[in-house]
Design a protein that fits this description.
By secondary structure, this protein is α/β, with parallel strands linked by helices. Helices cover about 45% and strands about 20% of the residues.
């Protein structure tokens, strides 16, 4: 099985990305396609100065403009498919450190599943993600449910909080999922030819949600495997004020709200529940706004306006 890693980086993130590259080189990966998304000049020069014996194994694609994660992985997949000898691809963000043995675990999991499922898509496990832990400990299937608003569903929150306490032991080492991220997605050439490329208009944040939901739409089975693990080496600490925190970039705020609103608006089976979630979401946002207002009034007002603009702009997007 010939595997290529598709990595998207941007800006000045060489020190992070080189760790990810090395984690791939230490495992059974034949080719690395690295998309440098509007990179810092110094980072790009460092990538080009990698040892000559690696030049055949690392293919660098430069983009003068920032294409976002959607455009970056769109380009990475297109370039990857040009390598005819590659049958499978592992998508990675530039901070997704691939732990030892992960590739072997993905290959073994694919072989086990292929007896019952055609070309299943696999995802690596993240110990720092509560959703992943809920999968492997409680057997809860990761999904992007109907009738949520901007990813918010009060019923899911209540169910998780009061009826699904996390167990300590790991019970499910290979479990079905219906949604997942780019980072850690293990996917075959044949499946990529069916579902196409990420939607560049989504730019970044939640664009991978749309892409993995597309797999579900085409009835392609998806699983997460506990023994294939990636570690995010650039995680930020959450803030109690969330969207109104200065740690939460305005770029991320706008695109995450816009894209989640767009995705959820296309997954409505009960309008009453959808609009109830929408109302509670707005109420929650305004309560967060009031809490943040007394700390930084001007920034809070800007962020509230940006949230409302993002929700409005979601109507401009189309499948």
């Amino acid at each position: 099985m010939n595997i290529a890693a598709l990595i998207v980086t941007y800006g000045n993130r060489y020190d992070l990305c080189i760790q990810v590259i090395n984690s791939c080189l230490s495992q059974d990966i034949k080719q690395i396609i690295l998309v440098c998304n509007n990179p810092d000049i110094s980072s790009l020069e460092k990538f080009k100065l990698l040892p000559k014996n690696l030049s055949d194994k690392i293919y660098i694609v430069e983009s003068d403009e920032n294409l976002g994660s959607a455009g970056g992985f769109n380009l990475a997949i297109k370039k990857g498919l040009e390598f005819s000898e590659i049958s499978n691809f592992l998508l990675l963000d530039d901070d997704n450190l691939l732990l030892n043995g992960s590739i072997d675990s993905l290959i073994l999991s694919r072989k086990l599943l292929s007896k019952s499922f055609i070309d299943p898509v696999l995802y690596c496990y993240r110990s720092s993600w509560s959703g992943d832990n809920n999968c492997v400990k409680n057997g809860v299937i990761k999904d992007y449910g109907y009738n949520n608003f901007c990813g918010f569903n009060v019923f899911s929150i209540l169910t998780t909080r009061f009826f699904s306490p996390l167990k300590n032991e790991f019970n499910y080492f290979l479990i079905r999922v219906n949604v997942g991220p780019y980072g850690g997605m293990f996917i075959s050439r044949d499946v990529l030819n069916v579902i196409g490329y990420p939607d560049k208009s989504l730019f970044l944040y939640a664009d991978d949600v749309e892409y993995s939901l597309r797999l579900k739409k085409f009835n392609i089975h998806q699983f997460m495997t506990y023994f294939a693990e990636i570690r995010d080496i650039d995680e930020m600490s959450p803030s109690s004020y969330g969207l109104f925190s200065s740690n939460y970039s305005e770029l991320k705020l706008y695109y995450s709200i816009r894209n989640h609103t767009f995705i959820s608006s296309n997954l409505i089976s009960n309008k009453l529940i959808y609009f109830m979630n929408k109302y509670i979401f707005y109420l929650k946002i305004h309560l967060k706004f009031l809490g943040a207002f007394f700390i930084n009034s001007s920034d809070s007002i800007i962020r509230l306006k940006l949230i409302k603009k993002a929700i409005k702009d979601s109507n401009k997007l189309k499948y």
